[in-house]
Automatic annotation (TrEMBL):
InterPro entries: NAD(P)-bd_dom_sf (IPR036291), Sc_DH/Rdtase_CS (IPR020904), SDR_fam (IPR002347). It holds the Pfam family adh_short_C2. It comes from the Bacteria. This is SDR family NAD(P)-dependent oxidoreductase. Keywords: Oxidoreductase. Belongs to the short-chain dehydrogenases/reductases (SDR) family.
Amino acid sequence: MTEPLGSMRRFAGKVVAITGAASGIGAATATRFAAEGARLALCDLAGDRLAAFAEGLALAPADLFLKAVDVADGAAVEAFVEAAAAALGGLDVLVNNAGIGCFGHVDEITPEAWRKTMAVDLDAVFFGCRAALPHLRRSRGAIVNTASISGQLADAGLVAYNVAKAGVINLTRNLAVDHAADGIRANCICPGGVGTPMLTAHMRDAAIMAEYERLVPLGRVGTPEEMAAAITFLASADAAYITGVALTVDGGVTAQTGQPNFDRLYRERDWDKKILARKP
């Protein structure tokens, strides 16, 4: 039987830093950690939206640190982690969650779009972990990264995103191996489709939703709260002997074959022309 939200206090007094925390998985994760007693350091590109979200967490000012951060800037990510640890007196958990999508084939996406995707989805994880490691050594803490089933398998038309998320998975494994002796655990979750702002714009298209319902054994996309439950589990003492794991949370998609063919669905609607014409 699942414990009701707030009935567990696994993170009482612990300091948790989360990137991409203003919406989607990040916001749900922040809410779950707060309900379990954590003190939070949150960052997001949308500083105003982050502040508005944080008002609902009901945390004392001394237990909350907020910062507007563009995670594509590695120095800014490192500065956030350092400022968070200084403001809250240390760091016990780092959740690297911020991410963006990128549509197009290798010969279609621009070098700028490729680099932006790598900077946000992969490089930011590297810089965040590098800054967090000295603090996590002292606390014998944990890292949880948001990867994707798109880092385990390939999606049509999502080459940059696939490559970046694959990098997150193996970076997580290396962190687990290299820093086990420091008492640091590192794991990642690999969501399938989740009802976040990055996906909901497409969910209004009945054909795309029908594709999900056809391909996902559980018959629906996941919720941010379900991803948050997996993240907090991996960060908790309940997972004390788990490190280097890429935990798939996809409603059974990768138990069979394939995701929706975004390449075909976008091109049938001529979305490819609009998306590929955008500047990163």
